[in-house]
Amino acid sequence: MQVCTLCCMNPETEQDILNRARDNISTDMLSEWLGAAFNDAPEGASVFFWFLPSIAKYLAQGHEISFCGTELALGRALTTESPIQNWNSEQRTWMQDFATSLLAAQCWQKAPDLDTFLCMLLSGGMSAEMAITCLKQLPLADFAIAMNRDVEQGTLIGSSAFWKPELEQSTRFLASLSDWFQSETLADELLALACQPDASPELMQATAWFPWPLDRRVNTTS
Fold first, then answer.
1. Which of 20, 58, 83, 131 is the most buried (most CB within 10 A)?
2. pLDDT-based confidence at 219, cuts 50/70/90?
3. Helix, strand, coil shares of the chain as percentages rounded to 5?
């Protein structure tokens, strides 16, 4: 399992996992594996990919699978030098479809917290371009309303403690999101939606907030 079994994961738990099919891993087992000290080296990549279907399944079901935060659920892709952006074409297509579906489901929540899931994608090594492609595939009205809810609740993009503004990768990712938020293309698309006779009050408010603010810690000039 490439994790510490001295003080992090119980050896009996490790053996139990090894004796199971990977589609029969419990959330508790997965949380314990994600919370244990891990071999952050290329040798650990195969173990991460073995767990990935379970990670995806429980994220899709809305489970909190990491004691440290959802933002770190895919982090071992990056730490094992297997960032999402370097996966093969089939794997990237799967991840893009999964991320789009996950973000779409979050848009329907009263507290979408899109920041957490975008930070999770960055932590797994997804490029800003791929993340924005996922966002562009969402129904724009749903995405705008979700952004509005997050802004109202103070959950701005860049507000998670797991964003690291001092790191170039985080800065580039957030700057790309900021550029898209401020683009004329997105503004025109939102205006067209807001002008529809059946536009909801919440959509109108989301349009009024545009361009949506990022957390004040975010430096989008780098």
1. 131
2. low
3. 60, 0, 35
